Amino acid sequence: MITGHVDRGSTTTLAAALPDFPWDTIAAARATAAAHPDGIVDLSVGTPVDPTPELGMRALSRAANSPGYPLTSGTAELRDAIVSYLTRRWGAADLDPEATLPVIGTKELVAWLPTLLGLGRDDLVVYPTMAYPTYLVGAKIAGCRAVACDDLDQLGDARPSLIWINSPSNPTGQILDPEALKHRVSWAREHGALVASDECYGEFGWDAEPTSVLHPEINEGRHDGLLALHSLSKRSNVAGYRAGFVAGDRGVVADLLLIRKHAGMLVPRPVQEVMIDLLGDDDHVAQQRARYLKRRAMLRSALEAAGFRIEHSEGAIYLWATRNESCHASVDFLAQLGILVAPGDFYGPAARLHVRVALTATDERVAAAAARLLDAAISEP
């Protein structure tokens, strides 16, 4: 008999299969940091704090009268803007506008890509050993097997269906060199796997220059078996707009489009207009890079003075720091200074000795954090 009752305590529910939401687990550290007399400096979540460019806000206002449903595919103008951006900035060649697709922020696509691809219990998803948690969450939502692996040659006879790449990396800031990218693409093609390259931090290369899998030197002039994910959240300070896109294999993108049409996964028309204008402008990106570079230098020197070692961090908007102790000990130490950071084990057991320190706080708050770290360094025996 069907009663319509759902047992919320059942361990078979999808929610029960997912890990705890990471940010809910550092409430105690947040409370400690918030009690600091000069206030909390929240460097835990990489959420932009700098103003949305006027260019984007004008486009949003201009398109505010949008009574009809938007195109799931994005307007022709948006798809052309995506191609233009990927060609100009990332060296993509012969990219078809129909091989592009706007998404409701790239986290949405990361979480749903295995499901949208029709993957399931017989499929294997590979992701980096120190990685954004949503790669694993997406595999779990689809019911896939998943393994963290940085060296594909170590997979033996395994034949993954989906391989995630993330360069610059969240959380480590590591940038894969072109040879490493070429090897991953070649290996995936030989083994029949789709590569999804999360390039959301690509605009923020500091000590090395990021490369896209859409560059012909990486993909041998072919886009088959490749998807590149890009976001405007960090690049253009529009995380609140939920604006991202995917581009690459035309056939895969066409399948994603069809499913997303059925599912109602629509990027609002005003947001599409914002994307067009922001993708065509590089000046605001240069301004934001300068802000982060200044904060990065200030925080790096202060963290090092306080006994931290910075590893990787060639790119992205984070510093990957360690004192060779449990990440939670480091979180607690910094919370006592009123500084909240993310523990490394959010990103996998291989990161248990590190913390992720975001650059996404105002200049005033970053300066306050740096001063507290320097004071702590002086106070230590």
Secondary structure elements and their pairing?
Layout: H1 14-17, H2 27-34, E1 41-42, H3 54-62, H4 76-90, E2 100-103, H5 106-116, E3 124-127, H6 134-142, E4 145-148, E5 162-166, H7 178-190, E6 194-198, H8 216-219, E7 226-231, H9 233-236, E8 244-248, H10 250-263, H11 269-279, H12 283-305, E9 309-311, E10 318-322, H13 327-336, E11 339-340, E12 342-343, E13 354-358, H14 363-379
Parallel strand pairs: 1-11, 3-4, 3-5, 5-6, 6-7
Antiparallel strand pairs: 2-8, 7-8, 9-10, 10-13, 12-13
Give an overview of the whole structure.
By secondary structure, the chain is an alpha/beta fold. The chain has 2 domains: about 15-50 and about 285-380, Aspartate Aminotransferase, domain 1, CATH 3.90.1150.10; about 65-280, Aspartate Aminotransferase, domain 2, CATH 3.40.640. The chain has 14 helices and 13 strands. Strands 2-8-7-6-5-3-4 form a 7-stranded mixed β-sheet, sandwiched between helices. A 4-stranded antiparallel β-sheet has the order 9-10-13-12, covered by helices on one side. Strand 5, helix 7 and strand 6 (about 195-200) form a beta-alpha-beta unit. The longest helix has 23 residues, at about 285-305. The chain is globular, with a radius of gyration of 21 Å. The model is unreliable at about 1-5 (pLDDT under 50).
